[in-house]
Write a structure and sequence with these properties.
The protein is an alpha/beta fold. Helix 4 crosses helix 5. The longest helix has 16 residues. The two termini are 36 Å apart.
Length: 301
C-alpha cells in the first residue's frame, strides 16, 4: 500500500510527513539523526501537541498497570497527549488510560505500519489509529527487530516534555528511553515500586541515583504549568470507599485525617491509604496537615 502525503486530521489511512513540512514535529529536529519522514495513521494535529511519555517494562504487576493507566488518564484529562511505544505491559496500560479518559495518545512503533506488532495489541492499535495517532519512521514493510525498538525510543523521548517511568526491570528497554530523555536535559519521573519486585528494580535504581520520584500526578501538572482540573472519568471510576471519602471532602472542603476518621468512622490506616490513592488519581492533594479537593476547572467531556 502506497503511503499518501496528505494531512486530513481524522484519516486512518496511511500518511506521511517529511522533515521540513509544517506538520513535522520541531522537537525531533534536535536529534543527532532526525527521521527523514514519519509514516502515520490518525490525527496529524497530535504531532504538534504537548506530550508526556509514559514507559515501562513488558513484564508488569497489577499495581504497575494500574499506576500507568491512572496517571495517563489524569494527564490526558488535562489536555496532555500521552506518548508511548505500544508494547505489552506498561505502554499498553498508558495508552488505554488516555483513551478511557477520552484524551489523546500517540503510539510510536518499532516497525513499519504494515506489521501488526505486537499481535496482542492489534485492537488497541486500531483504536489509537481511529482516535489518536500511530507513527513510525520505518517504511511500511520494515519488520520489527531488536535494533529498531531502542532507536524508536529516542522519538518518544524527543517528543515528550518529560518522561514518567513505571516499573522497569534491570535490563528494561524503558531505561533507554529514560536515558535518552536525560541526555536531552528533560526530567524523568519514576513511580516508586515494590522493592521485592524484579519489575521495579531498574526504576527504583534510578531513584537511588537521583531521579525524581513521582508521588502525585500534580507534580507533572506543576512542571508543565497547567491548572489542575477534575476529570469526570476519574471520579466515575472511584471505588465505593474512595467515593465516600471524596464526596465527604467535596461537601466539607478541607479536612484533616483525624476529622475524616472521626466523621466517617473509618480507621486512620484505611483513610491514609484512600487519600494516597486519591492523590495518585489527581483528585485531592495534601498540604499543612489538611486534605484538599483538587481545584475544579473546566470538566473535560
Amino acid at each position: 500500500m502506497e503511503c499518501k502525503r496528505v494531512f486530513r486530521q481524522d484519516a486512518c489511512e496511511e500518511q506521511m510527513v517529511l522533515r521540513g513540512d509544517k506538520q513535522y514535529p520541531s522537537s525531533l529536529e534536535d536529534l543527532p539523526r532526525p527521521p527523514k519522514q514519519l509514516y502515520f495513521q490518525g490525527k496529524a494535529s497530535l504531532l504538534k501537541s504537548r506530550c508526556v511519555g509514559i514507559v515501562g517494562s513488558r513484564k508488569t504487576t497489577e499495581y504497575g498497570r494500574w499506576a500507568a493507566g491512572r496517571i495517563a488518564a489524569k494527564l490526558a484529562g488535562n489536555g496532555i497527549t500521552i506518548i508511548s511505544g505500544l508494547a505489552v505491559g506498561i505502554d499498553a496500560a498508558a495508552h488505554r488510560g488516555a483513551l478511557e479518559a477520552e484524551g489523546a495518545t500517540i503510539a510510536v512503533l518499532g516497525c513499519g505500519l504494515g506489521h501488526e506488532y505486537p499481535q496482542k495489541n492489534r485492537m488497541l492499535r486500531q483504536e489509537i489509529a481511529g482516535r489518536g495517532l500511530v507513527i513510525t519512521e520505518y517504511d511500511r514493510e520494515m519488520a520489527p527487530t531488536k535494533y529498531t525498538f531502542p532507536y524508536r525510543n529516542r522519538i518518544i523521548a524527543a517528543m515528550a516534555e518529560c518522561i514518567i517511568l513505571v516499573e522497569a526491570g534491570l535490563h528494561s528497554g524503558a531505561l533507554q528511553t529514560a536515558d535518552a530523555a536525560l541526555s536531552m536535559n528533560k526530567p524523568v519521573y519514576v513511580v516508586p515500586g515494590n522493592i521485592n519486585s524484579a519489575c521495579s528494580f531498574g526504576s527504583n535504581l534510578l531513584i537511588r541515583e537521583g531521579a525524581q520520584p513521582l508521588m502525585t500526578v500534580d507534580d507533572i501538572l506543576d512542571y508543565l504549568n497547567l491548572p489542575r482540573r477534575l476529570s469526570r472519568q476519574s471520579v466515575k471510576l472511584l471505588g465505593e470507599e474512595e467515593r465516600k471519602v471524596f464526596n465527604h471532602l467535596q461537601n466539607g472542603q478541607e479536612k484533616s485525617v483525624d476529622e475524616l476518621v472521626r466523621e466517617l468512622s473509618m480507621g486512620a490506616g484505611r483513610i491514609n491509604g484512600i487519600i494516597t490513592v486519591l492523590e495518585m488519581k489527581g483528585l485531592v492533594y495534601t498540604a499543612m496537615g489538611k486534605v484538599f479537593i483538587t481545584e475544579q476547572q473546566e470538566m473535560p467531556r
